[in-house]
Specification:
Order of helices and strands: HEEEHEEH
Number of domains: 1
Structural class: alpha+beta
Number of strands: 5
Shape: globular
Largest sheet: 5 strands, antiparallel
CATH architecture: 2-Layer Sandwich
Radius of gyration: 14 Å
Strand content: 15-25%
Distance between the termini: 36 Å
Helix content: 10-25%
Strand order of the largest sheet: 1-2-3-5-4
Number of helices: 3
CATH class: Alpha Beta
CATH superfamily: HIT-like
């Protein structure tokens, strides 16, 4: 996807404050953080959303969730963190490249939106 914002970050065309990178996954800080610690994990392969993943993506998705835990701890979120995957228009997705938000550093009530209850 040549015009995808996150694909452009993966290709190095746009800057990002990286948290982690390997051959399959990139993690970087959100430019509009919703918490003191807020980063995203993305697959380097383009998938529009979680709803556009294939059975063969299961290992990659598992890896991303395990990395979320590891990186959250490395970023100082030892008391817990929140993960969010917005999927599709109805799920609030704004950038159509699968991404997992990881955020924390606030009291749990500050991280809970009213529509999550």
């Amino acid at each position: 996807m040549s015009h995808c914002l996150f694909c452009r970050i993966v290709r190095g065309e746009l800057p990002a404050k990286k948290v982690y990178e390997d051959e399959e996954v990139l993690a970087f800080h959100d430019i509009h953080p919703a918490a003191p610690v807020h980063f995203m994990l993305i697959p380097k392969v383009h998938r529009d959303s979680l709803a556009h993943c294939f059975p063969e993506d299961a290992a990659l998705l598992g890896k991303m969730l395990m990395l979320a835990t590891q990186l959250a701890k490395e970023q100082g979120l030892v008391d817990g963190f929140r993960t969010v995957i917005n999927t599709g228009t109805g799920g609030g997705q704004e950038i159509y490249h699968l991404h997992i938000h990881v955020m924390g550093g606030l009291k749990s009530s500050a991280l809970t939106r009213s529509d999550d209850k």
